[in-house]
Design brief:
Organism: Faecalicatena orotica
Number of strands: 7
Number of domains: 1
Distance between the termini: 52 Å
Protein name: NADP-dependent 3-hydroxy acid dehydrogenase YdfG
Largest sheet: 7 strands, parallel
Pfam families: adh_short
CATH class: Alpha Beta
Catalytic activity: L-allo-threonine + NADP(+) = aminoacetone + CO2 + NADPH; 3-hydroxypropanoate + NADP(+) = 3-oxopropanoate + NADPH + H(+)
CATH architecture: 3-Layer(aba) Sandwich
Low-confidence stretches: none
Strand order of the largest sheet: 3-2-1-4-5-6-7
Keywords: Oxidoreductase
CATH superfamily: NAD(P)-binding Rossmann-like Domain
Length: 252
């Protein structure tokens, strides 16, 4: 059985991956969709062009992984694509977030880094020649960001992990792509709060376009997928300019 697995599938980028995957992979037998909100997953499955298997649960708790591991051992599927799309962010200074929501920043690390890594490790034995791993990073991964400090740090981890894992797996014919968009018009900002820089509103992208670009880049075996001229400029700027200069600009 040939499958794709998508975390964070109930909304945003994860949901968009589920919607677009059937157009890029015509021979999928199932898409396994993972998120906390079962009713959202059920609605997504109902409209999917490919049968979906629902795994409802919290990726920061062990039960969902037990369910997934059991299903993988029972079915021994060929995972054609793993999409790690689950994640969240919080806007604000570290001290202020800690005062307002004491556990939010460690929860970011748990979901954005630990859960992504655990999911990848569970799925690795079921990846085959030509399989893809797609990890949702962010343009925030390119440079430390004041008022987005922990989120940017978690996405730097995702980018670094993705590139190193991709180098390790390349000889086996398995490819890893880190998707690094700028601001995307999803529910993300309902949780994160207002963006710290007004200019980010001007480069807000639509999720369907970001995902389409990502899937095209995945097909081309690219290490990193960056949508839009502005974010490609940000990537280049982070390589050429001292990070302290960029952080000063972001702080203004």
């Amino acid at each position: 059985m040939r499958i794709a697995i998508v975390t964070g599938a109930s909304s945003g980028m994860g949901r968009e991956f589920v919607r677009q995957l059937p157009y890029f992979y015509h021979n999928l037998d199932e898409i396994w969709i993972i998120a906390r909100r079962e009713e959202k997953l059920a609605a997504l499955a109902q409209g999917s062009a490919v049968p979906c298997r629902i795994f409802a649960g919290d990726l920061c708790k062990g039960e969902i992984y037990q369910k997934l591991e059991h299903a993988l051992k029972e079915e021994t599927p060929d995972i054609r694509m793993l999409v790690n799309a689950a994640g969240f962010g919080k806007v604000g200074e570290v001290k202020k977030i800690a005062h307002r929501e004491p556990s939010a920043q460690t929860a970011m690390i748990d979901l954005n880094c630990r859960a992504l890594t655990r999911m990848t490790l569970i799925c690795l034995p079921y990846l085959r020649l030509g399989s893809r791993v797609v990890n949702l990073a962010s343009a925030a991964a390119f440079c430390p960001q004041p008022s987005f400090a922990v989120y940017a740090a978690t996405k730097s981890y995702v980018l670094s992990f993705s590139r190193a894992l991709g180098a390790e797996l390349k000889r086996t014919g398995i490819y890893v792509t880190a998707v690094c968009p700028g601001p995307v018009a999803t529910e993300f900002f309902d949780v994160s709060g207002k963006l710290p820089n007004k200019w980010k509103d001007a480069v807000m992208a639509k999720p369907d376009r970001v995902v389409k670009k990502a899937l095209l880049d995945v097909r081309k075996k690219k290490e990193i997928s960056v949508y839009g001229i502005a974010m490609k400029g940000a990537e280049l700027g982070a390589k050429l300019m001292p990070h302290r200069v960029i952080m000063d600009l972001l702080s203004n």
